[in-house]
Design brief:
The first copy, chain A, has about 350 residues and is an alpha/beta fold. The first copy, chain A, is built from twelve helices and twelve strands. The interface between A and B is large, with 46 and 46 residues. The structure holds a DNA duplex (16 and 16 nucleotides).
Chain lengths: ~350, ~350
DNA sequence: TTGTATGCGTTATCAC
DNA sequence: GTGATAACGCATACAA
């Protein structure tokens, strides 16, 4: 009886050994009520056979697949940090996280959404980056909870975990102003993204409150989040008349690009030019003696994402959308000094 | 007929609309040969219904879970790069990659393996880090192909994708010697790991060939791969009599720690001290004007891992184990100069 | 090359 | 509570 040679045991084998029906075993596996005696004998049988449930088979009958789609723009330090926390949160609860990077390519994004659809994910977690718009139609016929993080897309009835970009940027730029800077430039990100817009907005507000005028790079490379945008932008900045004594970089890639450009221009940080990066990274303490940065916790953001996702999955009743806004902090290192 | 209201379409609906049998649709999905006319009508039906295959259902018949377990020590840039490539390779083939980070904690590692077992993964890809040994017994009763990468564990009959640590280290240290250095120190990694041992070995060989003597840090923090090991180790190095003019760091975290320590000691890179990092990272060009690094391609490593994994999965016949050894290259930046 | 029928391991729906 | 059994969506012998 049962335990056919070399085959993985099924609930049938377990039921056989435990002397109950498959229905009871299934109910056991799903944590439902059953007679104590049966519960024990099933547990023993599972242990003895070292049985583990075939989730594929379960999923084809169940509405819930146990999959969580996680769409990230790239595997960089921040998004990877969020991924890690999400995996850590979901795994013990029996969910499987499917990470997918679209690499800023619209076609990949569409593929990701189709992939999630095919896998029947229970929820999608996504950074609402540019290009997302274009593929939104796919989402319509997927019909699962969507949690947006980092970048916002307005007008969608979804949960959001965002960063207080405007406020934190304003705070950071004000810090530079308090240090005595009056010529402060900004390296913006891709202005299609809400984060880029809000960080710019915070910068603007800080400047306005001190009656300073904006300096932004006329970036030959166009706006964007990558190192070379920061590099080209910074080079551009110092071609003009009004040379900045401080640079506010909208993310750490841009800051890195600025560091490279300043080095070429033989301008020292922080003696000649001060710099702040929006977004911290593990290596920032080691770049030019330490880059001062606006720091936010991927872990905390990930945790809130999971809270939202889990509650949406377990309780489908349409509550109005919720938003959590994370407050970053300024980590002061050695890249900001008083201007000469 | 068919297309039951509100339900996701199945091959049955597709077959119906295309005027063929479900068998043909299934075969179409699996890329088998079929009459051109049928192929086209099926494609049209799929398009029209925006059908996508239910992989869970497919996998249950195939007797495979479609899961690939990926065990990484941490979500750092290198391992994440490998993960990305693996996801990119496996996803279009219908597999789902389950990433799991053990964070150098033995208990997590055991949990990971149990997790993989419960999910019935078709293969496990793992960096053979310390601690792996202790949990090996679990592997015995999982019985799926294992592909080791980065760190090797000897005596196992598995496929391996490794880096030529010894050769590349030797090459890097020789480069320092050619630049005129005679006092070259090493910051080793955790000497339980094959990579740490082999990088040390390469260093030793380079030194021996020039009849130089070794300088290694008596690290109060113990050996390890993390920034603080590099930091403490470097501080230690400059307490002694025989102060090195060059440092070979066994990974980039150690290099970062060294940079920090040297800064505190007010020693300039590369004027006072030269440094090479084994392992490149996106930010290394921006640390102290550019850190020279031994560079290996996560993408290429990932690709070979997938080749091995896929062939093991599809062809279970026990071939002898294969090994691919990746040859890194030295990326010269500005952290090595001739000693004064 | 194509259609038919059976089976995969699990959950859900019934009666009991 | 529990047991029998019909789905679930797909792959795959087997037959045609």
């Amino acid at each position: 009886m049962s335990n056919r040679k070399n085959k993985a045991p099924t609930i049938l084998d377990v039921a056989d050994l435990a002397g109950v029906s498959v229905g009871s075993v299934s109910r056991y596996l799903n944590g439902e009520q059953l007679r104590k005696k049966n519960r024990e004998s099933i547990a023993a049988a599972i242990e003895k056979l070292s049985y583990s449930r075939n989730t594929s088979a379960a999923n084809i009958r169940r509405k819930s697949s146990g999959f969580i789609g996680f769409l990230l723009p790239s595997f960089d330090e921040f998004h990877t940090g969020v991924l890690e926390e999400i995996v850590n949160q979901f795994t013990p609860k029996g969910y499987v996280v499917l990470p997918f990077s679209h690499g800023d390519q619209g076609s990949f994004l569409k593929g990701a959404l189709e992939y999630f659809k095919a896998q029947k994910v229970d929820a999608i977690i996504a950074s609402g980056d540019l290009g997302f718009f274009k593929s939104m139609d796919i989402l319509q016929d997927i019909d699962v909870p969507l949690i947006l993080y980092s970048n916002d897309i307005q007008g969608m009835n979804v949960d959001r975990v965002l960063i207080d970009d405007r406020k934190a940027s304003k705070h950071a730029v004000k810090y530079m102003i308090e240090m005595g800077h009056t010529n402060i430039a900004i390296l913006t990100g891709d202005l299609n993204d809400s984060t880029a817009i809000d960080r710019k907005r915070g910068y603007d507000e800080a400047l306005a409150s001190a009656e300073l005028t904006e300096i932004s790079a006329h970036n030959a490379a166009g706006n964007g989040w990558h190192t070379h945008h920061g590099y080209i932008g910074t080079l551009d900045l110092y071609k003009g008349e009004n040379k900045p004594t401080a640079i506010f970089a909208s993310n750490y890639f841009l800051a890195l690009g600025a560091v490279q450009a300043l080095e070429e221009l033989n301008l020292k940080i922080p003696n000649d030019v001060s710099i702040i990066s929006f977004g911290d990274a593990s290596f920032l303490p080691f770049v030019t003696g330490g880059i001062t940065a606006v720091s936010f916790s991927a872990k905390e953001i990930g945790r809130h994402i999971c809270d939202f996702a889990l509650s949406r999955i377990t309780d489908q009743s349409a509550k109005s959308s919720r938003t959590y806004i994370h407050q970053p902090s300024l980590v002061v290192r050695n890249s900001v000094s008083r201007p000469k």
